[in-house]
Amino acid sequence: MSRKVRLGIVGFGNQGSNYAKFLTEGKVPNIELVAITDTDPGRRELIAERHPDLAVFDDYVTMLESGQVEAVVTTVPHYLHPQMGIQALERGIHVLIEKPAGVYTKQVRELNEFAASKPDLTFAIMFNQRTNPLFRRLKEIVSSGEIGAIRRTNWIITTWYRPQAYYNQSAWRATWGGEGGGVLVNQAPHNLDLWQWICGVPKSVFAKAAFGFRRDIAVEDEVTVVVDYGDGATGTFTTATHELVGTDRFEITGDKGKIVVTDSQTAVVTRYRRSEQEINVSIPTEDIWKMTRDEFDPNEYYTHETVEFDSAWGGQHATVFENFAANILDGSPLIAPGSDGILGVRLANAIHLSAWTGKEVPMDFDEDEFLGLLNKKIAEEGKFPQRA
């Protein structure tokens, strides 16, 4: 029998319990779940009831040092991801961290630098939506230059509806000190990752955010962002958790084509036969009104392709787990290297900083300024310790 990676789960909440279920059902053939850690006695009782064959620990470090696990996945509050990642890597344990990689770039950078010093260990992040075959195909199209240089991107993703009861589940949820933010750090990290993964990292952001806009929370539940890619290219990103009927529409406009994605399931790819600039200078005066009235043959200028896949999300979490284990076992390339996690955290930090200050913020913003303002928000809550 092929060797399997011996995995431990940290945290038995909603995500951790879901992972335990499909791992013990054998849905990831190269992983054997052997242990789970949770600090809550009630949760440990539940683990023992549901998974009597697994080792159960009340302390994370004890599990790491038990000799029973060679890899871990961290399903814990966001602030703990960097710390737990480092603790595992220190002990020669491979790490798959949940999204987001952390709350602020200083702590994620520390994790990345430490992981870089352990090149023999696998460090990955659960960006499961990178397994979506639709988004993988779109990345290929954009990266290959098929639609030319990006001129504008727009993503409206307001399908993250959450009622007040969702926020009332836990005292740490939707707080600055416990969770580190709202929709940007909880629901939208996957979208922020895909946006940058496909379209590239912007140079600066300007954002408007509403804090406790339609929910009784301290953090953001609606955000609108404008980004500058340089060379005149721009992008917008809008997200919210209070739209009962939300919208998911992602557009990428290039100088040689355009992509329109609806509901993260179907994409229409338009490829121009020549660049827009070449088409522009080729249209004579007498044809101006033909263009504006659609009195022209579109086949002369562009083609359309509809891109769809039977499974919108591919293998999602199970695929990331299998890929993580494959990297450990035979060096297969990672779908989502852990070091990529800082990109989404940095963008979320820049968005928060812009919304707090009312200014356009470069991606190389002052990390100490951000952390100082975050700690001010935490102090105002009066529930959690400030961060270093």
From TrEMBL:
InterPro entries: Gfo/Idh/MocA-like_OxRdtase_N (IPR000683), Gfo/Idh/MocA_Oxidoreductase (IPR052515), GFO_IDH_MocA-like_dom (IPR055170), NAD(P)-bd_dom_sf (IPR036291)
Entry's Gene Ontology molecular function annotations: nucleotide binding
Signal sequence annotation: none
Assigned keywords, A-Z: NAD
Domain GFO/IDH/MocA-like oxidoreductase: start-end pairs: 135-259
Classification via Pfam families: GFO_IDH_MocA, GFO_IDH_MocA_C3
Sequence ranges assigned to domain Gfo/Idh/MocA-like oxidoreductase N-terminal in this UniProt record: 6-119
Protein origin, superkingdom: Bacteria
Protein's name in the database: Dehydrogenase
UniProt source species: Sinomonas humi
